[in-house]
Specification:
There is one protein chain. This protein is of the alpha+beta class. The protein folds into two domains: about 10-130, Phosphorylase Kinase, domain 1; about 140-364, Aminoglycoside 3'-phosphotransferase, Chain: A, domain 2, CATH 3.90.1200. It contains twelve helices and eleven strands. Strands 1-5-6-4-3-2 form a six-stranded mixed sheet. A three-stranded antiparallel sheet has the order 7-9-10, with helices on one face. A hairpin with a 5-residue loop joins strand 2 and strand 3.
């Protein structure tokens, strides 16, 4: 694992434990770094989540008398055991990005994120975050999509994130996020062109003619899609979808910050709306959601970004979810749920591209 961007004080001199090997001493050490003096009298662990790039567990803790008042449950996020997924995480510094987001950006982001009680990495690719347990808040579901109420909350959260870092991304303190000129963070012409043929062969019997047409066109015209956008850049989430959000009656909390990078804010909005709805429902909800995003962006103090500019960016990034569906399917550990999710995403995002006549952009 490349640790070029990893804070030196987080690289442990011994391996980060797997969830099943976490013991009281490790929890105590992590919490001590967050300012808690505790002695763990008992702990239990249960696996949760369906992440493709990491493993997640809930720790239930009992503290000895005299300990500080500390959380009774915590969420641990750990590196994947799958070598392919770990290689992808290393190539794109995904674990480092998430650690640095919580350390350096979360407090400035203007949106709700879990509290982080500790982070650790090791030279072999091990990674762990100890996070606030937000239960009973429930995660969204990529298959069910979003209600209009939840989608409205989500686009406003996106606007707050983008506004918090609007035109700030070129500073030296953000260099670790990447300063590449391409349109969509992480996804280059080589990534899509190398993964699409394998995706097409793997899922051949399940693909429609229009899905093949759109993906073939994107592969051919990807250099046009990849041109840098003439817009202010900001910090973007880049996997802004229902599975990475926790909802309750009072708030929406955004999780999974492994893909945080510098980009154009519209990438998160188009990706969320295009993938969070079945096509007919998306067409009905889309105008109001765009209004909500732009209203919140303006309310957060962003000026000089017209509706016409946003709509051009939004149309461009209708391709963003296709990139993720195809690329991630072929780059991370394959699972049955992952297959269903990536095919669902592809279908919805292809419809989004066609509804906005975005194929014509590839010929400009």
């Amino acid at each position: 694992m490349s640790l070029a961007n990893a804070p030196a004080d987080l690289v442990a001199d011994r391996p980060v434990p797997r969830p099943e090997n976490v013991d009281a001493a490790w929890i105590e050490t992590m919490l001590a770094g967050a300012g808690y003096s505790v002695a763990v009298a008992a702990l239990s662990v249960e696996r949760i989540g369906t992440g493709q790039l990491g493993d997640t567990a809930r720790f239930r803790l009992t503290y000895a008398p005299g300990s500080d008042a500390a959380p009774a449950t915590l969420i641990g996020k750990f590196s994947s055991t799958d070598p392919t997924s770990r290689d992808v995480a290393a190539a794109w510094s995904l674990y480092t990005r998430e650690v640095r987001f919580y350390r350096e950006l979360a407090a400035k982001a203007r949106i709700a994120v879990p509290l982080c009680y500790g982070a650790q990495m090791d030279a072999a690719g091990g990674f762990a975050l100890l996070l606030e347990d937000l239960a009973p808040a429930a995660p969204g579901d990529q298959f069910k999509g979003l209600s209009n109420h939840h989608a409205g909350r989500a686009v406003r959260e996106a606007a707050r994130l983008h506004a918090a870092f609007w035109e700030q991304g070129e500073g030296a303190e953000y260099r670790w996020l990447g300063t590449e000129a391409g349109a969509q963070p992480f996804y280059t012409p080589g990534i899509f062109r190398s993964t699409w043929p394998g995706f097409r062969d793997r899922y051949d019997a399940l693909l429609s003619d229009r899905q093949r047409e759109v993906c073939d066109a994107l592969a051919e015209g990807y250099d046009v899609y990849d041109r840098s956008r003439p817009r202010p850049r900001c910090i973007t989430h880049n996997d802004f979808r229902p599975d990475n959000m926790l909802f309750d009656d009072d708030r929406l909390v955004v999780v999974d910050w492994q893909s945080v990078a510098l980009g154009t804010g519209a990438v998160d909005v188009a990706y969320l709306i295009g993938g969070g709805y079945a096509p007919e429902a998306r067409r009905a909800a889309e105008p109001a959601l765009i209004d909500a995003y732009l209203d919140e962006l303006g309310g957060q103090g962003v000026t000089g970004y017209s509706r016409a500019e946003f709509e051009a960016d939004y149309r461009h990034f209708t391709f963003a979810g296709i990139n993720v569906a195809v690329g991630a399917a072929m780059l991370v550990q394959r699972t049955e749920r992952g297959d269903q999710m990536f095919l669902t995403m592809l279908d919805r995002h292809v419809s989004h591209v066609l509804d906005h006549d975005a194929l014509s952009l590839l010929r400009e």
